[in-house]
């Protein structure tokens, strides 16, 4: 099998890249190790930056998002039983975010790919990327019980942190930058309408809490918990009681409870792999970088990567110049490190570290007070949350 671009992974990054290439008249093949049902139901990100939403619209994949997604023009910060709303459009010249689950993005892009695009092979496990440093890389994969080779002009690894693509970059060429946090998020899905119409980020002496949503009838909520926590060790009642404590305000706001349908614990880490390119192999998304979810950046960074690659390949096709492809790592990393910085800032602003001192607690409150009282500080948060420019 031969194609111009071999794409490993049918998450939102791989699927969007296939769509962007299709629209540019460039053929691709997408290999996904899981089945379609798994891809369409795995819960991940739910916040789309302004730029991500705009890219989906331009790619022809935004109709259902605009119909069913929830546009959010701000978030609420809670600390010391107080509430402060950050107004995104007023601070950023009109930018906002969209609440639209990754599962739904994948459903939309899969439907388009199967109807209009090139091959999308589910249950096709990529085993290795071979000859990455040459002009003719190959992906060895297993599909329908037999091994096969996908011969490519370019390979893009959108296969996540545990995928095979990154392993094809020689270790002596790489640098890794990472930080592991001593806490995680206990996340729940609950069949209850959200208790607030925008996301609520709460800093509390007992730990961080986040009120989010997946739809007008389904809430998504998170609690900071110690690293290694077993989600099943928390009863439903204990979870609701703790959420209520951490979201407490001085006014009459109330947290609505409902049946919990899913619970899990997400570890927290920051990770960047450099470079993101070796020869004709390019990394995108979690294959190259991970951010703690506090800043809602993971999916959006992956979109930035594939937009950068698609633009560079179209430039090569139209001009013959490899300049933008050669600059892929540098171009992506400028945005990635800003997102890493923003996510780190949000995480350290809102989470209470184990053994935190009174001095550190007061610093957190002072930082939150600064955001609540300074338009400049508030604007910096709003600009980071709604997204850094692509390219």
The gyration radius over C-alpha positions equals 21 Å
Runs in which pLDDT lies below 50 for 5 or more consecutive residues are: none
Taking the sheet with the most strands, its summary is:
8 strands, mixed
Helix content: 25-40%
- By DSSP, the count of extended strands is 19
Please tell me the overall pLDDT: 96
- Total helices: the number is 12
Beta strand %? 25-35%
**Global structural class:** alpha+beta
Shape field = globular
Cα distance, first to last residue?
32 Å
Task: Give an overview in words.
The chain has 391 residues and is of the alpha+beta class. 36% of the residues lie in helices and 30% in strands. The strands form 3 sheets. Strands 1, 2, 8, 9, 10, 11, 17 and 18 form an 8-stranded mixed beta sheet that branches. An 8-stranded mixed beta sheet has the order 6-5-13-14-15-12-16-19. Helix 1 runs parallel beside helix 6, helix 1 runs parallel beside helix 8 and helix 11 crosses helix 12. The longest helix is centred in the last third of the chain and has 23 residues. The radius of gyration is 21 Å and the shape is globular. The chain starts with a strand and ends in a 5-residue tail after the last helix. The model has no long low-confidence stretch (mean pLDDT 96).
List the keywords:
8-stranded mixed sheet; alpha+beta; 391 residues; 12 helices; 36% helix; 19 strands; globular
Summarize this, please?
The chain has 391 residues and is α+β, with helices and mostly antiparallel strands.
